[in-house]
Amino acid sequence: MIHSLFLVNASGDIFLEKHWKSVVSRSVCDYFFEAQERATEPENVPPVISTPHHYLISVLRHRIYFVAVIQSEVPPLFVIEFLHRVVDTFQDYFGVCTEAAIKDNVVVVYELLEEMLDNGFPLATESNILKELIKPPTILRTMVNTITGSTNVGEQLPTGQLSVVPWRRTGVKYTNNEAYFDVVEEIDAIIDKSGSTITAEIQGVIDACVKLTGMPDLTLSFMNPRLLDDVSFHPCVRFKRWEAERILSFIPPDGNFRLLSYHVSSQNLVAIPVYVKHNITFREGSSQGRFDLTLGPKQTMGKAVEAVLVSSQLPRGVLNANLNPSQGTYTFDPVTKLLTWDVGKINPQKLPSLKGTMSLQAGASKPDENPTINIQLKIQQMAISGLKVNRLDMYGEKYKPFKGIKYMTKAGKSVSSYLFEFLFI
Amino acid sequence: MSASSAFNDEKGGSSSVGEPEYGHDPASGGIFSSDYKRHDDLKEMLDSNKDALKLEAMKRIVAMIARGKNASDLFPAVVKNVACKNIEVKKLVYVYLVRYAEEQQDLALLSISTFQRGLKDPNQLIRASALRVLSSIRVTIIVPIMMLAIKEAASDMSPYVRKTAAHAIPKLYSLDPEQKDQLIEVIEKLLADKTTLVAGSVVMAFEEVCPERIDLIHKNYRKLCNLLIDVEEWGQVVIINMLTRYARTQFLNPNINESLLEEGGGGDKTFYCSDEDEDEDEEKEKQAEVSALAKRKPYVMDPDHRLLLRNTKPLLQSRNAAVVMAVAQLYFHLAPKAEVGVIAKALVRLLRSHSEVQFVVLQNVATMTIKRRGMFEPYLKSFYIRSTDPTQIKILKLEVLTNLANETNISTILREFQTYIKSMDKDFVAATIQAIGRCATNIGEVRDTCLNGLVQLLSNRDELVVAESVVVIKKLLQMQPEKHSDIIKHMAKLTDNIQVPMARASILWLIGEYCEHVPKIAPDVLRKMAKSFTNEEDIVKLQIINLAAKLYLTNSKQTKLLTQYVLNLAKYDQNYDIRDRARFIRQLIVPTEKSGALSKYAKKLFLALKPAPVLESPFKDRDHFQLGSLSHLLNAKAGGYQELPDWPESAPDPSVRNVEVKESVPEWTKCSSREKRKEKKVEKPFYSDSEGESGPTESADSEPDTGSGSESVSVSVESGSPSDSEESEESSESDEDEEEEEKEKKKKKKEIKQMQASESEQSSEDDRKRDRKIKEQKSNSESESDEDSESESSQSESSDTESEVEVKKKKKVSEPKPPSKPLKKEKKEMSLLDLDDFEPTPSPQVTPVNTFLSNSLVTDLEGLSLSDSVLSPATIAPSSALKNYELLHRITGEGLSVEYCFSRQAFSPDANMVAVQMHFTNNATSDTKNLHIEDVKLQSGMRVKEFAEIELLPAGEATTAVMGVDFCDSTQAANFQLCTHTRKFFVSIQPPVGELMRPVFLTENEFKKEQSQLMGMNEISENLTLDAKCRNEHAIVQRVTTAANLSRVPCGSDKECRFAGKTVTSGSLVLATVATKDEGAAQLTVNCEKMVIGTMLVKDLLLALTQ
After folding, report:
1. What is the pTM of this model?
2. Distance set, CA B682 to CA A163, B159, B203, B685 (Å)
3. Cβ–Cβ below 8 Å for A162 and B234
4. Partners of B1086 in the beta sheet?
5. What are the angstrom distances between the C-alpha of B714 and each of B261, B730, B796?
6. Is ipTM beyond 0.85?
7. Where located (chain A) (predicted)?
8. Residues 5 to 24 of A: which have CB under 8 A from any B CB?
């Protein structure tokens, strides 16, 4: 399985190495650096690289490459999924997963890695178990440790590892018992030049923050569970119960976790919350181009569209853009040719627009690439698919918890992209 | 790394402790001084008495290791601290030890004794961690110690230690492969382990040490399948991959007769030229085959094969991409074609994950789409490319889109492709053009459209685009050159502008090859090329020579001199390939005296008809590697890759997977120890509580035992058709068989039942036989009904390990006597419950034991009760039938009628629920499908545990199911909808108060004590006159126990009957006393903490006793 792990930063330095079996020389990473050089973009480094004696499987997160060294056959996804789990754990522990954070907490990182893999095979990857073994560093604890000389390593033995519910640590106690659920939906759409939708889909997740004493057994039911087309669960969810009753029944892990991610299938029903009017033209022979963009809200059920961010990759020939936004600010990076416009909130009475000219390289011919427009946005208090939580019940404990459910819609990571111009047909 | 960054790191590493006095210490400031000196300082700290200093030192050392600095010279100083009290120091020392032990073998031995001590520690976690570190020390000398430790740990009581032992096996194996045989023994032992904790790790060890020993899996196959859902996710991946290989060697190819089952119908036709013929044949055969199918002996899937498919399917919903991929590949390699489709949705879901995950998934999807295109067609749009995708993802998506293209969707795909051509990512544009070329070759209809589009691209401003188009057009033209001489002319013109060597070479080749179509232009092109020959790239030069040769052969008049000139230039070229070529061609085409016979055939050599290139997916034929594997991704065999074997011609003996019940004997006996039971409770699989009606009494642990036990039962029953349990799920044909069989069975019902009973009893162990002897003695008085219920309970025990079908089947078998059956069950259960009371925390695991114990105890009790005639009728045989209530009338239910009764059995998935046994009868003429419950409306606090969906209730058939309702000790009705595949019915279940309790066994003294605590408000008394028929004690007991689920409390006085019970949800005691007086007068007293329950119970009991 996993032999060694190297952490490589953006400038190509190995700043951490950990070996689970015999030591593998760090020179094995040279093959990785080669591939890195060949790739034009950081994310284009192939995740799996074959070298004469080893295989390198890497993931890129937060501008750090996590390179795992493999010696024999193992499902690549197994390694990739594990590496992502490592990053998630770091993020969970240190808040951010940056080179600086890892270097500052190198001992904790090492202790974590030691617990997560045994002989290259995952041992404890549940954050609740790990937190029982190794307490996450907080400012307060660091200070206390400094003064009293106590340690980060949990004193008690990790009994959670033995339990039926390995994801929940035992003996949880809170004075305020609360359970919060965030229903976050993302619209992922491709819209063509004329404004018609090519694909649109809604993906959602329910992230939970559960701080409840003891061993609560929760059930969460939906008003309209049939909306959910494809779901994947946290291991705590009882699958049979979902199959039979469409109810989420689970003993939650302690703290933050992703309960469920789902996909809403209704392809034609997806309401795109904004529309874009655009006019981007280049005239043949002149070194000027016109840029005109207007945004407007559409089907938002009365909720405000917030945190709108428009970005567009302009053609390589564009030297500069001289634009005038009706609201918000815009930036244009002349090197990457990326135009970003931070719009903010859309006011339906006064639609935001961005107008102006682009200057082209003198003498260059009219660029024929398509500028694409990506839009990010947020709508609070609404799940665009219409998913509604019916009720949340708790069994197994006597107290009455405080429950909260929040809905939010945003544009997906691979955002609505408006593609222009067709070649033929 | 520079010194300054080292300094920062150092700071980072130590800042969390930052001993102030050492902050100013010259030694710690000596980071800039030589390594030697700094290490001196660390040594000093390690030797000190203060834990804080040691910790600080260890932290700095670990930081050094993390940066890859050598810290091995500190070994002696560090190893001394291996027995340090401070846990963190100890852990860091372990980290250090494992890292450097290999280099400092002798010194490492110093630490071994510490771990050996640890191995004996009473705490399982310490034992485990000692074994873990010990086995990680790669020192050959300690191999025997490790071997011993592993062997010992493999039989440790704690599953966690056994898991660690499984982890240690591959470590030892890599250290000393000689130990293989001994290790296999340990693996074999651990494979038999029944805990989910161990399963994943031991299979991992199996895969690393002895993947070829597939025979070790046989006995554990079913257990692994059943445990799978509860194993941790990483273990799941390993187990699924192993089981895929196993299944390939043990089962028959489910797609042997598959061509008919091809999903998707007509749209599914393949478009690869190579496949086309085959496909047409298939099409023709289809008609014939459809009719033949009915007659042909259908392929029968091994039930174990089905078990694997069924148990892995839910894992498609896992959050772990590796698990989803593992299940997907299992389905791809093992499932019948019609079922493979289920994986598509899950794989498409993975495309929303991190880009590395997408990369791997798309590679696998690309391979799958070649074989099973129909599967992914509905998800075509999910593979559309987004501008934000990394290039490697874009290219893979393009590959998938190309594979998915067919006549129906090609126009949308091409439209997508057009937008891609406008992308700014040039590598991607090039790949798109190639994809268009492939679509054009594969789909004849769009060939011309594509060609036109590509020709338009030739006027694109971007040279790369043009060049790529030229290359693709060249390939397309080769298919039908006659029609397209104008395109060739157009391309000839391009030679003036286009600079990309590959494109130039392609154009020249085209002109040379088809010079007869462009007789005027060709020599002119050669002229131009001859002029620029010296400046061309090598591949272009080679093509110029080619062109010259071909023209010389066809049109020597015009081109003789030009050819000579080109050949002369080539003769003095720097590149020897070109010089060689020139020499070779000159000999071949220019006839001289020396030239041999070959020159006669020069024309044939050069202008032979060349086959058009087949544009193939690079993913073709990759599926001979197991999908999801590293080897598949690299398209090359990786070290340690286990070949996916071909399906066997005929299935090996399936009986090898049968497990003897004997194996379980030690488990049973172990269970009696209290500690063991505790541990077992811990191992309770999480999901199984929601499984089946009698679910959680069945632990995954005991599943294989009971499963196999009942296996023998079912075989004995179904000896006529050993496979019908499988078939009934799919073919109605066998269903009919079954029915017929059943009619026969009905006649022989009793015999069979007896047989079953004896059968199942035979399969149990010796100590049970003793019970049976007592029982048999007893059964003389109790008649055969006792035996019936015996078999009944053994059936229900095993039911959830069996396939649902088998459960149904059994129900059918037992169905003819529905009214009496629950009663008898109840009789058993009641005594069971008495027993439960002796053991206040019955863990699900031990329930089977309970049943056993209870059997013996019941008989013991019965034996006792023979002398004490008062007790036996009350606790053991309430003689009247349970009352049936109507849930759904035949008429309102459109033929479906449902009755329910309170079976008074403990509802095992949830002790706080009342078991409601529902009896479904389908009086309609058509089948009812998908019977399930929906839209449960309850008062707050109430809960319902639905019965598992009944997939099919054939016309005229009946079945039963058990659901649980937690009424919260109130008589509020539970309202819900009963749904069939067509209709929904609003129904409600209202419990009589007597059903809200369960019997409790109390002694007379306990009863009095409890009663004295429930006086005043909690006591309700009523005077009554007993019904004329109900004057004797026996009748009173019978009526009370019928009206309420209470148990009789032994009583010295014959004037009083006492009953005790507990409410189901809150467990409040319910005590009832009937004191008889003269002439039928009596006093009824109920003591209950819950006054409402008490009042209602009094009313009910009054009614029961007076009427």
Report:
1. 0.66
2. 6, 10, 22, 9
3. no
4. B1020, B1072
5. 31, 19, 13
6. yes
7. Cytoplasmic vesicle membrane; Golgi apparatus
8. 13-19, 21-23
